[in-house]
Structure formats: structure tokens, C-alpha cells
Amino acid sequence: MAHFSADDEAMLQAMLRQLFQSVKEKITGAPSLECAEEILLHLEETDENFHKYKEMMHSLKNIMMIVVESMINKFEEDGLRSQERQKKIQKEKSNSYCTDNCSDSDSSFSQSYKFCQGKLQLILDQLDPGQPKEVKYEALQTLCSAPPSDVLNCENWTTLCEKLTVSLSDPDPVFTDRILKFYAQTFTLSPLHTTKEIYTSLAKYLELYFLSRENHIPTLSTGIDITNPNVSRLLKKVRLLNEYQKEAPCFWIRHPEKYMEEIVESTLSLLSVKHDQSHLVSQKILDPIYFLALVDTKAVWFKKWMITTAVQQCVQYFELCETMKADEALGRSKPYGNKQKTFYYSGQELQYIYFIHSLCLLGRLLIYTQGRKLFPIKLKNRKDLVTLTDLLVLFTQLIYYSPSCPKMTSSVHLENYSPANMVTEVLRILCDQKECAIECLYNNTVIEALLQPIHNLMKGTKAVPYCSETALIHIADILARIASVEEGLILLLYGENMNSSEGKSLTGADVIAQFSKKLLDEDISIFSGSEMFPVVKGAFTSVCRQIYGTCEGLQVLVPYSLHESIVKAWKKTSLLSERIPTPVEGSDSISSVSQESQNIMAWEENLLDDLLNFAATPKGLLLLQRTGALNECVTFMFSQYAKKLQISRHRKFGYEVLVTQVASTAAGAVALQSSGFINALITELWANLECGRDDVRVTHPRSTPVDPIDRSCQKSFLALVNLLSYPAVYELAGNQGLPNKAEYSLREVPTCIVDIIDRLIILNSEAKIRSLFNYEQSHIFGLR
């Protein structure tokens, strides 16, 4: 026991005497002597209690000395350990150039010291499996409330992480949910080098979970019921892992490779888990990839993580489609509106979700040059390597071999997740990347795979039922995208061997032209009466439009007389549109008649547009004139031009080019005049030249023009220049006199080429000059 020293006691007594003396002095001048005596008496009583106070101080000082001495020793030990850890961290930072946001560890060292040393060990003890659940709940609550940086910087963090990973197997759902909450909080608020440890531990836990025979993992035959508590908890853990996977690519640029390598390796280790395959396929235990596909069907997380398994899954799905009739597949499907199926996924549905996941994953991979370099690859049960071309052929075959109505969880997603639609979406993306398209799609093998169902239909083989109208529309879409690019068009016209000396064989363009002609002439009876038949015809004539819109393409397609087939189909459709009865108000058939009318009008306009595109080349324009439908096509073009509709991305040019081509002939110029196109063009020109914008002219008077032609009139100027070829000038202005009126009204607007010459060029009277608001600018425009 420690005691006060003699100096301490003397100092304390001197302080008390000084206090006593000051009180005496204060009360000396007090008005009442009795009051002073009471105070002195009270002080004497206080002096008697001094001995008790002295004993208490001895005891208190003794306890404090022991505590402080213990804390100082502990602090020195922890300080040395902390310095060693800081040196180690700094060394790692200097070696790996890791710039994580850990700078707050020093500033909060005192708080970390208080939390880690006092609480973390206690939390570790409270998380022991033998503890009551209330104790474990309280430990996790404390852990979630503490700053993540304080927890992660503690020396016992590794031990805590291991204990949390083991605790994920606890049967108590509330307890495991709180662990996942701590994991999620750590992912969100902590730097990479610490969240990496959480991710790898979670991935390792899931890997061991799937490898353990004690856990009852569903099989393909039983399917997945997500209302099952065990399945629900497993999906929560997989989803948490997946959410971090989606964010992981954000760190790749800012952090060293070794951190990302650990994440990738732990992920691949998890996804490569395989069970014994000696039993039947239907009894196959579901691998982790099935659960990952269930929470992230379109493989958003994927950049460059797995290849072979995805290709294997696509091959297996294709083989399944080959051996399964479409009608049998649909017959086994249950109604999508069945609420009992909402939370249950059968083995067939899980296989399909896994297939979609793999398909999207591979589609993302093929966009990148390095991803394409990963091929060819070796698959199980296949002697030959799978090349890039083999994969694209497989994708193409999936369009017309897969069922048209897959089993999915909701009818809303039926179209988006159909096999043909998903494959077409991937191929569209590849077509839009020129370098990728040249390497993947522009070869004879892939083109032949796309044309295979067309060959079957024209030959009338038994394989026809597999190819639906929807599949043909998807194939036509891909072919149109290929034909819209020069390299793809050359491939369709001549194949890969342009200078081959072999006998003439049908090229892709030949097959497409023959098939389109049969569709237009309705020589293929299998689709007769189908509501989708006009859409199929329109899709393939659109492919032909891409071909005959060029001189080389038209030269190849001339022997098939497509223009005659198109105009024949247009005349037939035009007669049908005239026979549609006028709907009667209140009739039940009004909606069906209206829909039928819209479909026929849309098909009629589509055929006119196909005919109009023959005017893209001089020879094509001649063929268009021979059909006798030139006036109708020009009128249609003017109606579309007036609507200012956006040009399709597959069009090589807008209507302005077609106007120039049409105006290059006398018949075309007359058709433009009669359709009202020239009148509209001149009216627009006059509005820009003479009228201007009223709201601007009031506040900002127009400055003196310095440009040869005002910018607002440049478009009209170019349109007129392109329009007025020699044949057009002769037809529109030849043998016609100028009006040369004595007076022109300010509201009088020109309507034809002769009026423009009279009002803007030959200004031979004061009346013409006075009729112009902007005489100099308008006259210069006319002269130019």
C-alpha cells in the first residue's frame, strides 16, 4: 500500500489553514456576531471529518497508482505493436502504390485504442458459438455501430474476420443477417485493401458451403424454391457477393493488380466448384453459377472472368433445343400467370437462366480484341476446338432452333428473355462494332448459318417447323445490318473468294433475292394466313433494299425483277385498303377493323418505300419509271419528308439524295412538281429569305449580311441547286413566260420555279423591287 509523503501532508494542512483564515477575515465585519460563531463552529466540525477524508484519499491514490501503472505498460506495448503495423502498411503502400483512403487511422488512434483493446477482444468472446443468442446479437450490434476504420485497423481484425466467416453457418437467420449487414457496411465504407479481405472470406465460405456434403443443395430435378429459408439465406450471400463484383471493375485502374488478382482468383475458385457428375443429369447438384445467374441473369458483373463454362452451357442448350420439339416444350410449360410458380424455379428454368447468363457473358467478351483472342478453346466431350466462328454459328443456330416461348418467371419479360431475342441482341452489338463484325461475322460460314433456314424453307424440308416467323425477322435484321456496311455487302454479293475460278454458285445476295421474291409472290404456303407474314416480307425486302441501293448490288439483283414483284404486291395491298369497310360507331368490330386497316396501310407504305429506294441509282430509277408507280412513290416521299421523320440508321442517305436522283429525269421532275414537293420547298425558302423570325427581329434587328448566303437559307439554296438539273429546268420552266405584273402584293408568295425567277432574279421593275423586304440579300440569293 502506498502512503502520502510528509511534504504532501504539510501542503494539504497549509491549504486548509489558509482557507480557515480567509473565512475568519470575511466574517470579521459581519453585522451579526452570532452568525460568525455558527460559522466557526461549523468549520470545527469540518476539521473533525478531515481524518476520514485523509483515509479516503490514501485508498483512492493507491488504486489510481496501480491502474495508471498498468495502463502505461500496456500503452507502451501497444505503441510498439502499432508502430510495427504502421511500418508494415507503409511498406506495402510503397511497394504496391496503394492509395487507399486510410489516412484517418492516425487521427483516430486514441479512439481505435479505446475500442479495439477494450471491446474487440470482448466481441470475439461474445461471438463464441456457445454464447446465448442475445449476447451474440449485442456483440454484432456493437460491431456495426463502430467506425469500420477502427475495427479494420485492429490487430485482432484477422481473427474477427475468420470468426465471422465461421459464424455465417449459424442456423439463426437473424444472427447471419446481422453479419451480412456488417459485411455490406464494410463494402460500402471501407477502402479496397480491407474490403478485399471481406470479399475473399465470403467467397471462400460459399465455396466451402457448396463443397460440403452436409448442406442440402437443391438439384436440377427439385428446382429452387426461394421461399425456403436455407435457399433464401444462400441467395442473400450470393447477392452480396455479386453486388461487390459489379463494383470491382471501378478499382482496376486505381489499384495494383495483386489486389484484383486475389478477388478474381477467389471468384474463379468459387465458380469452378463442380460436384460428382457420375449420376444422372436430372440429379445434378446445382453449382454456384446457377445461383449467381439467378441474382444476375444478364451477367452484369462480368468483364473477363470466365469463358469455357459459358460456351459449354450454350452448346448444351443448343443440343437440348435440337432434340426437343417446340410443341412439346410449349405443352409442358405452365401458365405464366400462376402465382404458385412465382417463387419456384424448376430445373429447366434454372438451366435456361444459366444459358442466358452465359450468352450475355460471351457477348460482352467478344466485343473486346483480347476477349476474341481467347479462342479457340477446348470443351469436354468434344474432339475439336471451339473457334470463334463455331461460336457465332452456334449463336445463329440458336435463333431458329430454340423454342419461341421460353419458360420465364413473368410474362412481362417473355419477349426480352426469349432465346432468339437475346441472341439477336448480342449479334446486333457485334454488328455495330466494325472491327468486331469483320472478325466475327463477315465470313461464308456464318452467312451460310444465317441463310440455312431460308434454304430449308425454299426446299420444303422437314426442318421448317423449327423456324418461326419471329426467327426469320431476327435473321433478316442481322442480314440488313451486315448489308448496310461495305465489307458486309461485298461478302453477300461475291462471298469471300471474289476472284474464284470455280463455277458460278449462289451467293448470299442471290439466296436473299430469291427468297424475298417468293415471299412477295406468296409462293411459300407455310406462312399463308399468318398475321406475321407481311412483317416477314417487309424484313427481307429491307435486306434487298440495302443491296439494290448500290450500283453493284442492283446489277446482281436485276435478273430477279424484284421491282415487279414489289409493285405487284403494292397494287394488291392498295386494293385491299380500299375495300376495308368504314367502322360503325358502337360496333364491336371497330377495334379489329381499325387494327386491320393500320396493318394494311403500314404494309402499303413499306412497299412504296421499297420501290422508292430503287431511285438511289440511275438504273434503279429507270426500273422504277417502268413500273408506273413513280408518281405514287414521290408523293409518299413528300409526305414522309413533310413529317420530318428521323432517318433509319440503316439508310445510307436521306430523302434529299433521292430527290436529286428523281429530279435528274424529266418524268421525275414532273412527279416532284405534281406532288407538291417543289411548292413546299419554295415556300420554305421564301419564309427564311423574306419573312425571317418575328420574335428575333423585334428585339434584335438583323445586321447587314456579310456571308454570300444567309445561314438560314443555305439548306434551301442547296436543295434548289440539287433539284434544278437540265431536265428539271426544261420541264419546270421551259416555254413559260414571266408574269411581270404591274404590282405585287407583300403577301404574295412564289409557288414555282418561274415565280422565283420573276421575283428574285429578273428584277426589271420598281414593283418587283418594292415587293421585297430584303432586296439586296434576296436578289443576291437569286443571282447565285
Automatic annotation (TrEMBL):
Domain of life: Eukaryota
Organism: Camelus dromedarius (Dromedary)
GO biological process: non-motile cilium assembly
Xref: PANTHER family: PROTEIN BROAD-MINDED (PTHR13465:SF3), UPF0183 PROTEIN (PTHR13465)
Domain BROMI middle region: 306-771
Residues annotated as transmembrane: none
Chain segments annotated as coiled-coil in the UniProt record: none
Pfam families assigned to the protein according to its UniProt record, in alphabetical order: BROMI (PF14961), BROMI_N (PF23431)
Protein name per Swiss-Prot or TrEMBL: Protein broad-minded
Domain (BROMI N-terminal): residue spans on this chain: 12-53
